[in-house]
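Quick one before lunch.
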Amino acid sequence: MAREDCPCGTALPYEECCGPLHRGGAAPTALALMRSRFSAFALGLERYLLDSWDPSTRPDTVDLDGEVEWRRLQIVDTALGGPWDETGVVEYRASFREAGRPGLLQERSRFVRVEGRWLYVDGDVSP
Ligand SMILES: [Zn+2]
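Model of the zinc ion complex:
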């Protein structure tokens, strides 16, 4: 899929966007990590989701539901999360289809930077 647009919606090719992060590169910002995690959901990269999760909140396993197809990521808000920050917040809306029906998830997610790597901590899902 080298020539295809990245699932996270930047309009960049996957290889210039989330691909390098999925292969072990460090995300420069919390937003970049958020995008790469959305792409990982879309591509079914369960290992990457665990590796980019803070150990204090990380589940033992991630079982992606094959019925859910992640379609589009929209960033609503960000706070901190830059290269010199220790924490960051990204609020996003993710649209998906589940068994043919459209759905929307909105979450305000918290991130921490540990030894130069951004990690997902947890988030508040909007009703
Ligand atoms: Zn991407």
